[in-house]
Amino acid sequence: MGFKKGEYKHSEETIKKMSEFQKLQKGKPKSEKFKQVRMGSGNPNWKGGKRKDVNGYVYIYMPNHPFTYKGHCVLEHRFVMEKHLGRTLLPTEVVHHINGITDDNRIENLMLFTNGEHVKLHQLKKNSNSKNKGRRVR
């Protein structure tokens, strides 16, 4: 059992809102029609523009940044370093967390490396940890 055509009636307020929305959207491509409502702060699930991934890295919603992740977000530690330096970071530059805590994005906890330098740093740490493995510390 369902509604017959014309049997269901919207309230006058709902009809007014729907017609205003349709007027705003008229002539826009279909993909653009809902972006202004659904993206960013227009989304009902908006949580302030920050989110954490499974590794603890914080992403910030910044759709206009030149180097975004999936077209919308930037890693917060990279953005903090960019603000500190006053320039956009190159894709070959890596921001390292000194204390290893990936959501601690204070400038005092961040160091800038080239990709090669960053790999060497982690190799040195790995080698020093493996040399001390199994030894008794007195």
What report would you give on this structure?
- This protein has 138 residues and is an alpha+beta fold.
- The protein has helices at residues 12-25, 30-33, 35-38, 76-85, 115-132, and strands at 50-52, 58-61, 73-75, 93-97, 110-114.
- The protein has a domain at 50-132.
- The model has no long low-confidence stretch (mean pLDDT 78).
- The strands form two sheets. Strands 1-2-3 form a three-stranded antiparallel beta sheet. A two-stranded antiparallel ribbon has the order 4-5.
- 36% of the residues lie in helices and 14% in strands.
- It is built from five helices and five strands; from the N terminus they run αααβββαββα.
Q: What is shown here, in short?
A:
The protein has 138 residues and is an alpha+beta fold. The protein is built from five helices and five strands, in the order αααβββαββα.
Written as H for each helix and E for each strand, in order along the chain, the element string is HHHEEEHEEH
Tell me the radius of gyration.
25 Å
Assess the beta-strand content as a share of residues: 5-15%
**Structural class designation:** alpha+beta
Number of strands: 5
Strand order of the largest sheet: 1-2-3
Proportion in helices: 25-40%
Specify the overall morphology: elongated
Distance between the termini: 81 Å
Largest sheet: 3 strands, antiparallel
Give me the number of helical elements. 5
Regions with pLDDT < 50 over 5+ consecutive residues?
none
State mean pLDDT (0 to 100 scale).
78
